[in-house]
Amino acid sequence: MEHLSKEQLEFLKNLLLQRKREVLQRLKTFHESESSKVSTEVGDEIDHADWEMERFNQFRLRERETLYLKKVEYALKKIEAGTYGICENCGKPISFERLKARPVAIYCIECKKILEQQED
Ligand SMILES: [Zn+2]
């Protein structure tokens, strides 16, 4: 990670920790809204369909958040291991500018273009 200064790395680490807190907070909110809905009586069928749809959407969102959380934790582990900010595809350093915008990025911008369908 020689291309990142100690300050830059510290900045990115704090950014990741902040993201982690945000995600955990959102996951907590999902959980709370879900338990509050369980206690709410489900009325007619239309309401029920809406409720099912909402549940599904919440589920999808929660999946996304959980996935993101894993990426954040993975990135934090890489900081500890000293392998953070190195492209996992070509081994080249990922620019600080890119990491600042996307601290969970594991590919450099060139590889990201090639592996486009893959979300980082
Ligand atoms: Zn690369």
Oligomer: single chain
Order of helices and strands: HHHH
List the bound ligands.
Answer: zinc ion
CATH superfamily: DksA, coiled-coil domain
Query: Could you name the CATH topology?
Result: Four Helix Bundle (Hemerythrin (Met), subunit A)
* Radius of gyration from CA coordinates: 19 Å
Q: How many strands, which pairing sense, and closed or not: the largest β-sheet?
A: none
Span of the ends, CA to CA: 19 Å
What is the highest CATH level, the class?
Mainly Alpha
**Helix content, binned percent:** 55-70%
Shape: elongated
Q: Any guess at the CATH architecture?
A: Up-down Bundle
Number of strands: 0
What structural category arises from helix and sheet content? Answer: mainly alpha
Strand content: under 5%
Report low-confidence residues grouped into runs of 5 or more.
Answer: none
Structure description:
With 120 residues, the chain is mostly helical. The protein has a single domain (6-114), classed as DksA, coiled-coil domain (Four Helix Bundle (Hemerythrin (Met), subunit A), Up-down Bundle). It contains four helices and no strands. Helix 1 (6-39) runs antiparallel to helix 2 (45-81). The structure holds zinc ion. Zinc ion is lined by residues 87, 89-90, 92, 107-108, 110-111.
